[in-house]
């Protein structure tokens, strides 16, 4: 099975009322942990690469590692650019073998967002690559950009049809209350998502795949593990998993998860070093770190995405 675009995956996910997990990758252990979990559960998968990941690990290294995972697992895997911020970056990823790109024009005006998204769509479609656009603005941290709660804005359902028609995008990320990073809600706050907006979008775009960014649940077990082993994370609150499962049964076909993987890896590494202060062989400490990634991804497939057995 070669790398695939997201087109068929999303058709099946929409009809089957489940979502595909899009997990961020930065190195070999993360790729192995994610793909081993997906293989065990026979789940289709999106591996996504941010521009920061591409700078950290290098395009070719990541591509070859993902190609190795495709061979090893035999799974349908899409390789996706996360938060592309320019036509040039999207083009470089398309030319370099990605099967899907996101052009994130959400910080531009509506007209500018349409213009840049349309330009990427034209190039991508000519190369058999699918495109995700974004309308509305999530709070939180992406790369070096920190969007404050005041600057965040929900997606306006009345804009989605025009955006999709004029750009030709294949999927649309919307803002309904999720946000990037580990601090999505304040202590004492009751986490809520705007399902009314999702329903309205679904009505206006029947059958069209919707994407949720910022969908980590900030699993308390790993925050606790970090803090019990020398870490100092303030109260971190994420998106309740039952809300994500509900969204996955609606029009949401792609759910982005990165922070939960980072927390799992960090928690297990801190614990490992606390228990084994004299160890210094990376293979020793990266083995449990990779196992933690596998465990959290299996958990997401089973409890949030509902896509086990769908590959
Ligand atoms: O939404 C952003 C993802 O978590 C990727 O984060 O830009 O730090 O690689 P990054
Ligand atoms: P989290 O920070 O909630 O994991 O979101 C990741 C994401 O949206 C990547 O694009
Ligand atoms: Zn995101």
Number of helices: 12
* Rounded average pLDDT: 96
Rg over CA atoms: 19 Å
Helix content: 40-55%
**Largest sheet properties:** 8 strands, parallel, barrel
Classify the beta-strand content into a percent band: 15-25%
> How would you sum up the global shape?
globular
Element-by-element helix/strand order: HEHEHHEHEHEEEHEHEHHEHH
Give the strand order, joined by hyphens, for the main sheet: 1-2-3-4-5-8-9-10
Kindly, what is the distance between the CA atoms of the first and last residues, rounded to a whole number of angstroms?
Answer: 11 Å
Low-pLDDT sequence parts: none
Quickly give the structural class: alpha/beta
By DSSP, the count of extended strands is 10
Report the bound ligands by name, code or SMILES. Answer: glyceraldehyde-3-phosphate, 1,3-dihydroxyacetonephosphate, zinc ion
Name the descriptors.
globular, binds zinc ion, binds glyceraldehyde-3-phosphate, single chain, 12 helices, 311 residues, binds 1,3-dihydroxyacetonephosphate
What does this structure look like?
The protein is of the alpha/beta class and 311 residues long. The protein has helices at 7-16, 28-41, 51-57, 59-73, 87-95, 110-126, 157-167, 195-204, 220-228, 241-248, 259-275, 282-305, and strands at 20-24, 45-50, 77-84, 100-103, 130-135, 140-142, 145-147, 171-174, 210-212, 252-257. The strands form 2 sheets. An 8-stranded parallel barrel has the order 1-2-3-4-5-8-9-10, surrounded by 10 helices. Strands 6-7 form a two-stranded antiparallel ribbon. The protein is globular. The structure holds glyceraldehyde-3-phosphate, 1,3-dihydroxyacetonephosphate and zinc ion (ZN).
